[in-house]
Amino acid sequence: MAKFTKANSVGEWLDQRLNTTTLNKVLMTEYWIPKDINFLWAMGVLLATTFGILVISGIFLMMYYKPDVNLAFDSVNYTIMQEVAYGWLFRHMHGVAASVVFLIIYIHMFTGIYYGSYKQGREMIWISGMLLFVVFSAAGFSGYMLPWGQMSYWAAMVITNLFGGIPFIGPDLVVWIRGDFNVADATLTRFFMLHVFLLPIVIMALIAFHFYTLRIPHVNNQDSEELDFDAEAEKYLSGNKKESKVIPFWPIFISKDLAVLGIFLLFYFYLVFFHYEFAMDPVNFDPADNMATPPHIYPEWYFLWSYEVLRGFFFDIGPMKAFDIGLAAFGFANAIFLFLPFLDRDTKILPAHKRPGFFVWFWILMADLIVLTIWGKLPPTGANAWVGFVAATLFIVLFILLPVISKIDAKKRGE
Amino acid sequence: MSNETNRRDFLGYTFAAVAAVGGAASLVGMKKAWDPLPSVLSSGFTEFDLSTVKAGHPSTIMWRGKPVFILKKTADMQPNKRDLIINGDRYTIAIGLCTHLGCIPAWKKTKWKCPCHGGEFNASGEEIFGPPPRPLDLPPFSISGTKIVLGEEGPEYKKIAAAIKA
Ligand code: FES
Q: What is the pTM assigned to this prediction?
């Protein structure tokens, strides 16, 4: 055993046993961040905070929630909302955070795409981030089911039915996932388990991994300038703070993050107190009824774009059934972002405004996603169906074109 | 030296074998834990008297938590190979869940329209528009007199199921 001398303070005592001084350096005071980054890089801290809010408010909700088809609806809408002191507050905080977390994830994602932060050397950051997105989606969906309202029920019906489209094992898989021939009690209890236990710990593990992937290639910056972090850190530590292009995460950089976080929290609590209804679909205040489908069903706003890709293909093409095309397109839409680092063939890391072709590609993609999101909420009839079809096709074409477009950009620069 | 290495290899392989068997066994156990419970599987039969329905107005009954449509066809509705014929009356029997993603289609005068993605089914339960990939599914049933029992595979069911396949 190492030799321990008598410690003079609690800090020293801990340092001897846990090496806290070094840990603090590695994670905080000597974790170097480029100076040249804007508020969009604060989204990571926002996400971590929002996730913290979700966990804590979730713990309080779980103490009164009952995962049983006969009790679930009332335990939420009566017990938690009416009886539990501040139950309504925890519910609104949880519901609004679940919605807002996706807004921040999308901003975080598209910041990464705009500045090329997924490229050469940073692939693992991107991939771990996309895995987080997938698990967050699963957590969001499984949580949406728990109040057992009409929308909960029919969302579960539609999403579990999606697995029926998988060749050969589809129909049996659906029954297995549900634990019943229909969406029923078994389905609710297992989704409850996923939502409150399995998915959150997977998320926590992935968050740790996501942070770790960042530590080695370091965070990108606005000009995508390649920094020699060791040399810049050296400069900073030797007192040459002005010339150095990096600053320590703690306490210098974090102050900017915290300022952005302050603004975000004002916005978040404004929603919680005054506009919580944007995260609470009115249809979900009717108890689930397995004998009546609501006239128009749609997911929460953050899934609308991929939902619209799913139903954009509403007619059969040749021997292919509309259902299968839609499902394949949906699978494509959800998986393709994962491959972004490999579809982008540009040899350099550059922000989008320095890559003419990619710049256009990026903004068309943004516009297309907005169109998909808006039309995803409209009933799929008449002209709406065609808008959905065009937008869904465009989405796929964009990703097929990306390797070509990014290559052309590199060529034009003479590479 | 080489002796020792071999002994360690052997220990390693032994562990791998035990772990593989144990791992496979637990996967089977976990898979089965998510299967429907016996009480769900045996969730019985539903009886319904066909003579109570009015032609052109489908009834919906619940079987195993799912809606089942029973439509007595009117004279101007096309006969179909999947019709159940009892005393000269033609019936469409179908599970009332859209074969696309499982919404319940609503009866609109002459056809079922699915609210979710606009799928449509005719009075015989066949898909005529939109994304549904196949006709409405046929639930197993048997007939005694004018009574239909859902959940049992009678000869009438087998005949219709075979006709649908062909
Ligand atoms: S569920 Fe009926 S058309 Fe999609």
A: 0.89
